[in-house]
Amino acid sequence: MSDGSSKTLMVDGRQMVREVLDKLFEKTHCDQSIEWSLCEANPELQIERDLEDHELFVELLSDWIRHSENKIYFILRPQKYVMFTDPQLFFMWKKNKSGQTDVNKQTKDLLIKEHFRGTSVIVPNLEGKMYLKEDGKKVWKPQYFLLRASGLYYVPKGKTKSSSDLACFIRFEKVNVYTASNYREKFKAPTSFCFVLKHPCIQKDSPYIKFLCCEDEKSLLLWVTSIRIAKYGHVLHQNYQEAVKRASGFQSARNKAASLQTKADQPKDNTFVFNPCMGPSPPKSEVKFNLEEPPPDFIPPSPPVHASS
């Protein structure tokens, strides 16, 4: 885990990385962001790779040697689906920085549609100088590389960038791309931004591993992500759509739960009991008194006196 803790899972041999992620979501109760990833780390070669959601998890582990010190990390990777959240970084990479940042959602959707929703995926038209490590030596030589859907090509010395002059450096069918760490110290690399292309069964240093070094972090992201696009194509887009669907479902459920909790926390309304036997209270009315003046004082007459006989 990214916090240093560990989890033990029972994984079926037919389960994909996506299904293992779902199990971890249940165990950790974390959000189901599309950035969560399972990362394979090989300390022997000082390399790591984010596993793709469609890959069979147990099959990947079967490539490890016995008593391997390799580890799987459950970690957030903002760059996991950056080719879909910010496609302009890869399909408009020749533009300046402002031209890449001032891109609206409509333009992004159009780039994804053009490059991923056709009959075949159109890979980024990426090219540039990288440093290639010589076999068995701590020597790095500059080489001009070009990315194509079938693999990585280079321009031989004295040749041009035309298709007829390009030489194939490596094809992607049977290799994975890994980022490397501390190669500046280990192999005297020109920069700290290195990556490796190798067959997954190669777990120790081998002449069949291709070591490459980029000028900066941006170039490293460009090359590694573009190679993933060339290697996985439509499947990568399907993985992204599944991840977005899963994250949206989780967010909807969380919003619904929060709404129900808010209603439960609200104070109850006052309850009035109506008794049909009790009519409504009569309205208060103003009572007027008619005060008349009392009659004037008078002395009543004396009673009559009768004469005696």
TrEMBL record:
Q: Which UniProt keywords apply?
A: Cell membrane, Cytoplasm, Cytoskeleton, Membrane
Q: Where are the transmembrane segments?
A: none
For the PH domain, which residue ranges apply?
123-232
Q: Which domain of life is it from?
A: Eukaryota
Q: Which GO terms describe its biological process?
A: signal transduction
Pfam families xrefs: PH, RA_2
- Domain Ras-associating residue range list: 1-81
SMART domains, alphabetized: PH (SM00233), RA (SM00314)
Region Disordered: start and end of each range?
269-309
InterPro entries per record: GRB/APBB1IP, PH-like_dom_sf, PH_APBB1IP, PH_domain, RA_dom, Ubiquitin-like_domsf
Family designation = Belongs to the MRL family.
Q: What is this protein called?
A: Amyloid beta A4 precursor protein-binding family B member 1-interacting protein
This protein's species is: Oryzias latipes
